[in-house]
Amino acid sequence: METRTQSLLDRVSPERRAEVEERVETLLSELTLEQKVGQLNQLNADFSTGTAVGDMDVERGILDGDIGSVLNFTDLEEARRFQELAVEESDHGIPLVLALDVIHGHRTIFPIPLGEAASWNPEMAELSARVAATEAAASGVQWTFAPSVDVSRDARWGRVMEAAGEDPYLAGEFSKARVRGFQGDDLAADDTILACAKHFVGYGAVEAGREYNTVDVSETALREVHLPPFEACLEAGVGSVMNAFNLHERIPASSNETLVAGLLRDELDFEGLVVSDWDSFGELVEHGVAGDLRDAARACIEAGSDVDMVSGAYATELVELVEDGVVEESLVDRAVRRLLTVKAVLGLFEDPYRYFDEERRSRRTLTDDHREAAREVAGESQVLLKNEDDLLPLNDGGDVALVGGLADSATDMLGAWHAVGDPADVTTLKTTLTDRVENLTYAEGCDRDGSVGDEQLEAAVKAVAAADVAVVAVGERYDQSGEAASRAHLDLPGDQRALLEALVGTGTPVAAVLFNGRPLAIDWEAEHVPAILEAWFPGVEAGPAIVDVLLGEHDPSGRLPMSFPVTEGQIPVYYNRLRTGRPAEDADADLTRPPANPGEKYTSRYLDVPNDPLYAFGHGESYTAFAYTGVTLGAAAITAGESLAVDVTVENVGDRAGTEVVQVYLRDVVGSRARPVRELVRFENVDLDAGESATVSFELTTADLEFWTADEAYAAEPGEFEVQVGHAADDVTAVETFELVE
């Protein structure tokens, strides 16, 4: 698989490139060793996004030339003051790069990235990132530490909310869309910011889903699962990459020469900036691979990592390492050159104050257009998990009971990593339903943490019993997912299941709305609650977007980017698994029951739960129904270098308009390494009126057939392949075969 990496300098004109390179080399020749090392030191300005690593006077450090970039500021005047100190009062006069984690919106907060991925529409991610960049750039931000492109199959890990789920292809499509949205066509424009693909690499595979835990992945898994989204970002021209916290082959990613210098730099030809994660250089000591910060600094600079986020390893140790002859100064020059190139491409040398304009910030922040975009993305991100007896959409004129503290919790709608999002900007589900449903009764039922008091329960049961239908908001608080928010148990927190049991027991039909940052284990709810709408943490337009779906004004078109387990004991559970030597699906056994005979027992199965997830990757229902009435391939056989046309005819066989996500999977029947049962290779959203049909055309290339072979190279091996088309990974409705021939 050849990655066509695009560098920052590839994105500018030849004339501009020559100017940048000349400026950078001139500056580099004028800096002292101490000043060069200072450029590689990144300090924290305000709130912490990691453990404390010691205090430093940021303003004094800027004046002394000891800081090249600053993260975590929210005050525009403070940021301008930092820049003034660097440009006007420090000896070298080099501007700072100012950074902030802008993950799913700056002030206008969009759905969490996992929710955006549920839209299966990368245009939504690009729109979200474009709005975020516009607002952030108007607020002094020049660099965001996003997108997170970690592929994860473990919902216990809180950071699944930051990325696009379990599939490398879907993650790649969303990751490069976010890079395009953040960086735009011109990084010197006043509405773009530098993107950062993170965390390189394999961080999504932390053992037991526990944050900062060990990672142990094979080379094949690294190449086929965890690397592709990074390659997509490199092809989109991402300007920076962040080291992961984890080990790879028991060497921390930040100091891993095989990963950084070998894979990222040499093999993938990445010339951009590599920044540590929070104190990840210093954590080499905790990992037991460095005796002290001196050892850590040496290892990281030699591996090819450039900027030290807050650990102080470079700032305190690099000068002496060079002077002692342990580290070559050329390695420092190489890292500083990359950072100065970023600053030049951002246009900071021409105008270091271009990001500090109060009037522009006011004009570009939380605009009507931005809120409308947030509503659109939130609308497309919702997934209808279940809709028994067509309970949804709600009927006009009925008495509706709304229950749940999350229904009116503005704070939780923002989700984790919400930058400078303000709960005062949020329109909640309760607010919108009150405005748009005439006969509405609200009962809190439970607090936002899931606790249920006797009086709350009594009032909720009374309200639901008197209603025609109940809408019940349940799920997690926003801080129960995200970084450092791993959960061993994935059921509804607190007493929310007991609340649902009582409400379902009234006999009134119940529709549950889920707010959460990860897949949940909701087997009881899936069996007993008639309708379940997955809303994730939807952002500032939570209420309008959800009510649009509840009332049928927007068809629920979202599909799951990550499987929902029946129980935590199944994890990791994901669709693109490998077959075993004793596949349970070949045993003709009912896996929902204990095995009845040896033929059923001695297979790859559980005794007490099914193998399959509760809701599979790609799952999502609609208010209408779709059928695939034809799948044709352009040829029965192709050779290397040829492409294959795949035509899929889909029909809306229901009685209302809707959106189907056509999903195309591929299976390599026999390979030199075992191959997954299916792998997503293409998808497309198709809008169809009732009774309407359309033919969607895809083109597969030899690159889609490649994998990391037994020869330890990407290649497409001759043989038989299946094209599988369907509604979800567990709902394939058509299979056609072709052959790759020599």
Feature tags:
742 residues; alpha/beta; six-stranded mixed β-sheet; 24 helices; 31% helix
List the helices and strands and how they pair.
Layout: H1 14-30, H2 33-39, E1 41-44, H3 58-63, E2 69-71, H4 76-89, E3 97-100, H5 113-117, H6 122-137, E4 143-144, H7 168-183, E5 196-200, H8 219-226, H9 228-235, E6 240-243, E7 247-248, E8 251-252, H10 258-267, E9 273-275, H11 284-287, H12 293-303, E10 308-309, H13 313-323, H14 329-345, H15 358-364, H16 368-381, E11 383-387, E12 400-403, H17 410-413, H18 429-436, E13 440-443, H19 454-465, E14 469-475, H20 496-504, E15 510-515, H21 523-528, E16 531-534, H22 542-550, H23 598-601, E17 626-633, E18 637-639, E19 644-652, E20 658-668, E21 679-688, E22 693-700, H24 702-705, E23 707-708, E24 714-715, E25 719-728, E26 731-741
Helix pairs in contact: 1-14, 2-13, 2-14, 6-7, 6-16, 7-9, 12-13, 16-22, 18-22
As a percent range, the share of helical residues equals 25-40%
> How many E strands?
26
Shape: globular
Number of helices: 24
The low-confidence runs, each spanning 5 or more residues with pLDDT under 50, are none
Share of residues in strands? 15-25%
Strand order of the largest sheet: 11-16-15-14-12-13
What average pLDDT do the residues reach?
Answer: 97
Q: Write down the Rg.
A: 26 Å
The separation of the N and C termini measures 18 Å
Most strands sheet = 6 strands, mixed
Task: Tell me what the structure shows.
The protein is of the alpha/beta class and 742 residues long. Helices cover 31% and strands 18% of the residues. The longest helix is centred in the N-terminal third of the chain and has 17 residues, at 14-30. The protein is globular and about 75 Å long.
